[in-house]
Amino acid sequence: MNAPFTLRPYQQEAVDATLRHFRQSDESAVIVLPTGAGKSLVIAELARLARRKILVLTHVKELVEQNHAKYQSYGLGGGIFSAGLKRKESRHQVTFASVQSVAANLDQFRDEYSLVIIDECHRVSGEETSQYQRIIELLKQQNDALKVLGLTATPYRLAMGWIYRYHYRGFVRGSGEEQDKPFVHCIYELPLRYMVNRGYLTRPELVNAAVAQYDFSALAQDRFGEYAERDVNQLLGKHKRVTRAIIEQVMELAAERKGVMIFAATVDHAREVTGYLPEHQTALVTGATDLKERDVLVQRFKQRELKYLVNVSVLTTGFDAPHVDFIAILRPTQSVSLYQQMVGRGLRLDEGKTDCLVIDYAGNNVNLHHPEVGEPKPKHDSEPVQVFCPGCGFANIFWGKTDGDGHVIEHYGRRCQGLLEPGEGDEPAGHNGHPQQCDYRFRFKACPRCGGENDIAARNCGQCHKAIIDPDDQLRDALRLKDALVIRCAGISLDGSGSKLKITYHGEEGEELSESFDFSKPAQRHVFNKLFGRRFASGQAPQVFSSADEVRVMQALLPAPDFVIARKQNHYWQVQVQVQVQERIFDYQGSYRRANEV
Ligand SMILES: [Zn+2]
Ligand SMILES: [Zn+2]
């Protein structure tokens, strides 16, 4: 039987990828499709093809309803299990359910299911973890070959990281060595750009015309790159005139527009923004808005009785108002995914709609079409850069900076994210037959005992398993000693002639320390290469130097340590105090400030 609907080519590809994956594996999988790509059609087709019982889970009743309606519209019959929709049907072959309702009625799910599909599956790594896990655990008791498929537009969230581990294009996600991820594989992914270029989504008109912009860059960020609400409120409180000017511009530009969504930074901010907008055309929706009231407001907005919808990060998923043609972003974010989600609210196709105006008033400096790096942005001007692995050749995407010619001049990558293809005749790589991650490290902590290279945050050596000295302990100890000297190194310079290479470390306040390496002595050459050669060009092109002259020629790309620790050798017969460099700490990560950092 043919499908009673026609899938777009990429939807068919997503379906094919799912069938292919589950034919050979029971491991969980994720499909990544941008908002508006028609996930519900992919779900409908998978449900149609399934011979046995399947369960489609999601966290909000609107999505349960939408997915079910799509399925019904093809003349197929499925049940709904959702307290919010006042229906508890679990006897159909296909059940569309809300996760809360199923978790509260587990006894009604004792049948053998072959597949669980989770829509908006990035929520699995969030607050509903235990509910989803409990349901999956229970269904696995009935069928230990149960397949779990997730769909999402945002496989990465700042506070949680990537939701899967292995990507089908041959790389691994996440810098941390082994965190648990809710899904194992990403089996299909489509970029937003594809959707726009093929005319499946409205073209975003990204206009750089903000009359005024907030500057959040001075605020402290947490480790996920987000700001504290109190700090944001304080900053915005000082810039009421800016907010008023922004909203005046929004209203001016909105004259030509049908529906305007404004993303505010905090609840206070949203209230202020709402106060500047025409009362009878504006709705405010926050996390605290009563659900019934929210439904009413959203309906009135969809019916165009209201023109402006102000919200605080509650309408980023599952909200569907195709007529929206103006997105004003007044909240800070460093996540490409979140940015895409906000903009995505305005990209659905609608009659007579030719583009969607997007203005960023928060100076986010996010490129809509950049890949998600998957780490908090380290500096305000950092950009995604492509860094090739000298080990396996994989093109990594890290935060970094390029010069005018596009050469990478710095990057924050730690370990190569490429997956190694097993060579001919090799055993399948890695444990559980999983592909193995390339072990090349761009920055690392060397184990003082065995020389093994470890992640810069590692506590124990991955090779000899002994504890690695914490650079913070090293610095603290040195700072306590009277005869030790510690400098924050801002740069190095070279000197010396012939086989002798003198390196001078320059502290940020003009202090200097130096040491010499004699390249005619193999042992000293070896130490130099381990420290400097291995880290050459931010680890992008490790070198083994055989002479001091070779080093001098390539001086510009030599790495500088972040800290240098030296000890005074004060012998009574010496008039001058001798200073001996003891430690050079590269790629420092810890609580001390590095040179030229605030
Ligand atoms: Zn590699
Ligand atoms: Zn070791």
UniProtKB/TrEMBL annotation:
<dbReference type="InterPro" id="IPR001650">
    <property type="entry name" value="Helicase_C-like"/>
</dbReference>
<dbReference type="GO" id="GO:0003677">
    <property type="term" value="F:DNA binding"/>
</dbReference>
<dbReference type="InterPro" id="IPR050742">
    <property type="entry name" value="Helicase_Restrict-Modif_Enz"/>
</dbReference>
<feature type="domain" description="Helicase C-terminal">
    <location>
        <begin position="246"/>
        <end position="391"/>
    </location>
</feature>
<dbReference type="GO" id="GO:0006412">
    <property type="term" value="P:translation"/>
</dbReference>
<dbReference type="InterPro" id="IPR011332">
    <property type="entry name" value="Ribosomal_zn-bd"/>
</dbReference>
<dbReference type="GO" id="GO:0005524">
    <property type="term" value="F:ATP binding"/>
</dbReference>
<dbReference type="InterPro" id="IPR014001">
    <property type="entry name" value="Helicase_ATP-bd"/>
</dbReference>
<dbReference type="InterPro" id="IPR027417">
    <property type="entry name" value="P-loop_NTPase"/>
</dbReference>
<dbReference type="Pfam" id="PF04851">
    <property type="entry name" value="ResIII"/>
</dbReference>
<dbReference type="GO" id="GO:0016787">
    <property type="term" value="F:hydrolase activity"/>
</dbReference>
<dbReference type="GO" id="GO:0004386">
    <property type="term" value="F:helicase activity"/>
</dbReference>
<keyword id="KW-0547">Nucleotide-binding</keyword>
<protein>
    <submittedName>
        <fullName>ATP-dependent helicase</fullName>
    </submittedName>
</protein>
<keyword id="KW-0067">ATP-binding</keyword>
<feature type="domain" description="Helicase ATP-binding">
    <location>
        <begin position="20"/>
        <end position="173"/>
    </location>
</feature>
<keyword id="KW-0347">Helicase</keyword>
<keyword id="KW-0378">Hydrolase</keyword>
<dbReference type="GO" id="GO:0005829">
    <property type="term" value="C:cytosol"/>
</dbReference>
<dbReference type="InterPro" id="IPR006935">
    <property type="entry name" value="Helicase/UvrB_N"/>
</dbReference>
<dbReference type="Pfam" id="PF00271">
    <property type="entry name" value="Helicase_C"/>
</dbReference>
